[in-house]
Structure formats: C-alpha cells, structure tokens
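Feature request, filed as a ticket because there's no other form

It would be nice if the structure record came with a short human-readable summary line next to the tokens. Right now we just get the raw output. Example of a typical job, pasted below so the devs can see what we mean:
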Amino acid sequence: MTDGGPLSKRQILAEKLRKRRERKERMKKFRAIKKARRAAREAAAAKLAAQNPTRPAPAPAKPATVTLRAGIKPPLTLKPDATKSAPAGTLSAGEIDKVKQRAIDALERDVADLSRLSAPTGEQSVEIERIRREVDELKREFYIHLGAWQRLLLARHPQRPYTDDYIRLLFENFSEIHGDRNFADDPALITGMAKFHGQPVMIVGSQKGRDTKQRLARNFGQAKPEGYRKALRAMQLAAKFGRPIIVFVDTPGAYPGVDAEERGQAEAIAHNLREMSRLPVPIIITITGEGGSGGALAVAVGDRVYMLENSVYSVISPEGCASIMWRDASKAEIAAEALKITAPDLLEMKLIDEIVPEPEGGAHNDPEATAKMLDPFLTRALAELSQFSARQIVDQRYEKFRRMGQFFA
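Raw output as currently delivered:
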C-alpha cells in the first residue's frame, strides 16, 4: 500500500527486482561460505598431515575425521592441539550451518512476501514458483548434509514427537501400566498394552515432557531404577502372554542422582540387559531422539533396532566427552563428529538395522508424517519375527549383539 492506495504495476515490478537482487546477494554469500569452508578443510588436512608425517594425508576435498571406535577407520590420536579454534576470519561448521539456516529462512520470507502480491501476472507467478523450487532445493541439500552436531540439536528439539505422540498416532486401545511393584512409579518411562493394526503388543517408551512443568514431572526423560524395573515388569508380562514388545527410546541417559544410586541404578540397568536378552518374544527398538548411554541401552536390547534419520545413539553426550577429553565443553561439536553418533555412522558399523526417514526439516515439523513413515518398518519387523519360534528369536538376538564391535573378525 502507498498513501492508502494499492501498489502500481511499476512499484510491484520494482519491488520484485529488489527482491531478486537481494536473493542474488544471498547466493553470493552462500558461495563465499562454501569456499571458506573448503579452504578450512584443506588447511585442517594439511595440519593433520604435518602432525602425522607417517600417515597419508586425506583427500583435500573431504573433511578430516577422527574416531573413538576402532576398526572402521584407522583411528587418529585425539590431542588438545588438534582441536584449536580456526584462525580469525574463518567460520566453524556449526556457524556456517547457522548462517545457511538464516539465509534459507530469509529466502522463504521473500517467497511469502512475493506470494502475497495482489493479482500477480502469469510471468510473476512463474518467477515466484521458480524461486520457491530453488528454496526447496536449498532446504533439501541443507538437511541432507547436516553434521553430527546439527543432527543432535534436531534430536533434542522440544517439539519432536515423544512416546505419547506415537501411541496416539500408531496404536489403539492403549492401557498404561504403572509402578514397579517394589518402590514407586517412574513417569520418565511409559509402559502399557495396546493394539497395533489389531495385534496386541506391549509398549515401552521414554517421555521427556513438553513444558517446564511436564519436564520436571517426567525428570527430563531420565529414568530411575524404579523406571527400569517397571519396564522389565511390563516386558515380562508381555512374554508371559506372547505379546511383541515395541520400544521407543528418547533419553539423555539414566538419572545420575544420589537417590537413584542408593536404590541400585547400575544393578537395575544390568538386570534389564540380561533379562531382555532372554525374553522369548519379538522386541523392536526405535531410537526416536536421543539414545543416551546405558540409560537407553537398558531398554534397547532387541531383535530389530531402528533409528530415525535425525536421532543419535551414543555412549556419552558430546558435551561430556569434550569435558573429559579436552576439559572444555565448548568443543562438543568436535566430539560429536568423533563419537560417530548419527544414524548413517551407526548403520555403517552395523550397530543398527535400518534408518527411518523423517519429513523435510525434521520430525518436529510433522509428527503425523513421521508416524506414517515409521509404521511400515514396525509392520514389516513384526511380520518377519512372527515366523520364528521363541528359541530362534532368543538365539538370533544373542548372535546379533555378539557380532557388534567385531570389526576385524
């Protein structure tokens, strides 16, 4: 609007040209950032080659990687001087990703502004649609090439679907089971019976909570000994009645408080590991967000282990690893890359079975679509495992976990 009246055709065209110039400037910034990142990778590769003269230097076009697991790649020694910040004027990978995200958001706003033009002509409509396709392509490329740290942030997104969302979207007739018949009920873990496409199943899942009040009540998804004992009680009940068990894992880890230790946190986790390996019914695990250390593994001994595309599964958090290795939690991004916590890394190491894709931008953008993508994986796994006897299921589960980590065998 200009002076209370509609924009003229000339003003609309001028505005369109201004938007186009701004978009070209943003694309120039994108190319400059990519060039800076490539230069930083080459500098890092040269530095590593200088520090390790006996080891061949990695290809300059790829970032140098380090690993804390033996067997997949020749491990490099993690030294404090190898993690020094980049020289002034260069950006870290995390900062570059943030700049890209802001630029994509700005382009999306521009497309929305252009779409609101009153009665756009055919030529303008074609141009708007072309820009929208370019923005969609940029978003797709951005989310495909996310680093470990960015995937961890997506896994921790507060709007990511939790167990109660999957129960609502995938199951029917859910009846919750409370308490461990020993001490108390733990809201950090949800257990209960339900039907999946008409088949009775047992559900076990982590629950973090949406707002501050819920998170405090759920202890941020960190289970205590009574939570793991409740989960085991539910799973043993499922084994008694021959019901498959479906587990959703999204926890930063077991609760490390004094009260949990007093009631036998380590013993509860170890007991679950032993007993789950012996249950004579199919167990299907899905890592939906964070899979943190023994707190996740205590309910994740299963016949099929799936991970959502932007979930993580690790023996320790990147912040904890950085604090131990370098006495500096700010190096968590470096630790995240070294720990190999993402779904593609774990699939390569054969620690999980399959990766479940997520909607564009992450599961938090469309929980319903995420549930629909997960549904066929659960259906197929149940159909495959139902063909085996109880003895075969237990034997295959044992062999599955015995093979893990045998990279040189």
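Something like this underneath would help us a lot:
Residues 9-76+91-145 form one domain.
The chain has two domains: 9-76+91-145, 158-403.
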